[in-house]
Amino acid sequence: MELKHIYDTVKETFDRENRAREQGLSLSRDTIQFCANSIRAVHRGDLEESRRLLKAASDNIDQAHTLLEPYPRIYYAGFLQDAEKEYAEAATTFALIEGDPLPLPDDLGVGTAPYLNGLGEAAGEMRRHTLDLIRENRLERCEEVLGLMDDIYYLLASIDYPSAITSGLKRTNDMVRGVLERTRGDLTTAIRRQSLERTMKELEDKLGGN
Prior knowledge:
Elements: H1 4-44, H2 47-68, H3 72-75, H4 79-98, H5 105-108, H6 112-135, H7 139-157, H8 163-166, H9 169-209
Helix pairs in contact: 1-2, 1-4, 2-4, 4-6, 6-7, 6-9, 7-9
């Protein structure tokens, strides 16, 4: 029985899928790197560089969607969703630090589950931002950021769907809760220290005036 025509057909199909997979993996890996560097840049205050990297990540996501759309098995294999999550994290981290409105999933062109998990990761990044603000003694801004973290936690906690739908969102939100509580403790300590320093200064001024 001659089966070469079956082999040729199968090989052609798998060759196309494999090429798309390899290109999609490369785009996704580069996207994740762009996003990590964008987050580092915004923490440093280099907004221009952070925006440039976000744009590069967005372009990669768009290319990957177009490339993988004809291949659903590869599109939903997971690596593209990981890249979407990292992009959502970087974009929402930028917005939170800069005080901009949070982008929605459609604004970013990402799925809902990757977006929500990225938003949770962004809340984790706010701990680093808060610690930077504490070192700068900007405690009022710290309280604002803590309020944003609290809002994100309760938003994610209200999404009550199976893990298969949310891509493990509960695990992400458990992380947010832990980060939130540690950050609240650090800020409380900083506020108490500031209050003590203010009281001591007032006492020194009072004693110095007598």
